[in-house]
């Protein structure tokens, strides 16, 4: 089962200048809880937005650059795999029963047809962004759960965890 995991604003905004446009600590905790121990598939820019590889996950980086060598701390090389297509990424991640596609926008667009589930954090505001999540076609997807989190002292925006499965 291939799962897309993302956080997007009301107009499907993902981020700007290769960064998130909000800070939601509970969403980070949920992302960590769901993806730890799994393969995470991402584009090069998403990988490079991390200060270092995320712990306890195998990173599958998609890039068109055949000469790309990611910067990886010594001893973490086995946690990073570079491939040159979504198909190659899915093949590498097939060792995991639950790989996650974690972005960015272009990788989400490419992978939505191959995915079985979407874990979407819908951030209840609009944002200035340059990267967007694809529209969820409700003729192909069904929302099976939603859990709202109101704005509070740690979260500047209300948000809802939405789980979608392919019909």
UniProtKB/TrEMBL annotation:
Q: What is its EC number?
A: 1.5.1.3
The GO molecular function terms of this record are: dihydrofolate reductase activity; NADP+ binding
Alphabetically sorted, this entry's keywords are:
NADP, One-carbon metabolism, Oxidoreductase
**According to the UniProt record, what class of enzyme is this?**
oxidoreductase
User: SUPFAM superfamilies given for it?
Assistant: Dihydrofolate reductase-like
Query: Which PROSITE patterns does the entry link to?
Result: DHFR_2
Which InterPro entries does this chain map to? DHFR, DHFR-like_dom_sf, DHFR_dom
Per its database record, what is this protein's job? Answer: Key enzyme in folate metabolism. Catalyzes an essential reaction for de novo glycine and purine synthesis, and for DNA precursor synthesis.
Q: What is this protein called?
A: Dihydrofolate reductase
Organism of origin is Patiriisocius marinus
